[in-house]
Design goal:
Elements (H helix, E strand, L loop, with lengths): L10 E4 L3 H12 L4 E4 L7 H5 L15 H8 L14 H16 L3 E2 L2 E8 L15 E7 L2 E7 L1 E4 L39 H4 L3 E5 L3 H16 L4 E5 L6 H4 L8 H15 L4 E13 L6 E9 L2 E9 L1 E4 L28 H4 L14 H4 L6 E3 L13 H15 L3 H5 L27 H10 L48
Parallel strand pairs: 1-2, 1-7, 2-3, 7-14, 8-9, 8-13, 9-10
Antiparallel strand pairs: 4-5, 5-6, 10-11, 11-12
The structure holds flavin-adenine dinucleotide.
Amino acid sequence: MSETPREGLPVVVIGAGPVGLAAAAHLVERGLQPLVLEAGGGPAAAVASWGHVRLFSPWQYDVDAAARRLLTATGWVEPNPDALPTGRDLVENYLTPLAGVLGDRVRYGVRVTDVTRDGADRSRSLGRERRPYLVRYTAGEQVREVRARAVIDASGTFGTPNPLGLSGLPVIGEDAAAGHLAGALPDVLGAARERFAGRTALVVGMGHSAANTLLSLVELARDEAGTRIVWAIRGGSPRRLYGGGSDDQLPARGLLGTRLRDAVEAGQVELLTRVEIDRLEPATSSDGVRVLGTARRDGADVDLDLTVDTIVNATGFRPDLDMLREIRLDLDPVVEAPRAIAPLIDPNHHSCGTVPAHGEIDLAHPDDEFYLVGMKSYGRAPTFLLATGYEQVRSVVAALAGDRVAADAVELNLPATGVCSSDLAFAADEDGVVSPDTLALAGASGGGCCAAPSGPQPVTLGLGAPAGCGTVDPEPVKVGFATGVEHGRSGDA
Ligand SMILES: Cc1cc2nc3c(=O)[nH]c(=O)nc-3n(C[C@H](O)[C@H](O)[C@H](O)COP(=O)(O)OP(=O)(O)OC[C@H]3O[C@@H](n4cnc5c(N)ncnc54)[C@H](O)[C@@H]3O)c2cc1C
């Protein structure tokens, strides 16, 4: 069959989230042609769905540099760099104007279902590199295809939450009980208020999402009598989520953990530790759901048999790799992230998402000019930050533009945290679960390779690893972020 030349085709960006739109901004700046395909009806549909949640990163970390340049040229006024936006603020005051500047380079209501090389399935090698990519998507009832010179997959992980089962499978009855699952971040004080008011909610998970929802439920319970809040975690203690408190350089993040600890200690939240849910069944006495399994109470393992109205499944997210079945990817078998960055973010070894600045060279796959970026590039690791994604796409687009020097000069500025450890292996308890006490000590001593310095530090990739940093090759940046920000499952959740 005749081949379409790659040159002249657009660079398809999957997802118009903050990182996908930043990629498009860099492409425009470099004179390349982006085509952003977004499943939602508008920009950043995933962020919009958690629009009621306040970010812990102030605006200065939330705006991409190329996007800023494009927007500033239109007279856009940048929000106060020290203010903390909500997800809604991010969409309304930054991402929607940015998408406006990008115009019809962004298409909405189109869901990418498959990516392959045009005319070459995964097993065909001959002439593979000459072939463009073929991106298949649905637009309403229609199935369509577009050819691309390169593909940047920035589709995030928000659409594919982890199931409740500790083994990675849905627990028995989970699919049938889907109507009782509210997702990680229901708008408890807004759109979802009726669902929770005066009822029993079980929040499962030990990440930032769980913390946000728990605190909203505590607020709801003040006004709505009969609201009961149960919190189930896999580990033996929530201390890790309580985080660095006043030592955290992102004060909002430190405060989140402190407020949650206060709510648990005041009895507003009933905490169950060492929870293993085995199955869900319809409740017999109400229209709720029965949660069955085991938990730890007063130092002893007990059967769990709890009837609740709603389960907030804040158990983290995983990447959708099904649509990439025909692409030759080089992914870490544990984290499902690009192999080169996986050791730096594996939650089995890193509590704080220690992130050396990493760029195109670390994000490349055997199929050339195909990249996973943004939240999806972290696979199952929960500690992604926007600033990391913006640096990824800057480097990737520089490489696509043939600017190898800029692609390899990777820098990253992130705020530091109060509690952080880079090697959790030594801290695992008898269940392989990280001991929060050891963890806190590791962070406090500054012994971990992600120990926080006195302030944000720019770094350049490619230097040798300092002693004690496990398998990590590049020098880790000397910054990290709180152990308590996992948006879901990690060693202790
Ligand atoms: C509640 C919460 C708070 C957070 N707070 C912070 C913070 O304070 N600071 C920080 O740095 N980071 C924060 N993060 C982490 C991270 O920065 C965000 O998740 C961010 O939205 C990730 O951006 P992204 O562009 O990679 O992915 P997303 O924002 O998830 O965007 C992906 C986009 O792709 C679209 N999409 C998905 N599948 C397809 C498909 N098949 N075809 C087409 N389109 C598709 C989605 O609709 C979505 O619009 C937070 C995350 C959460 C969940």
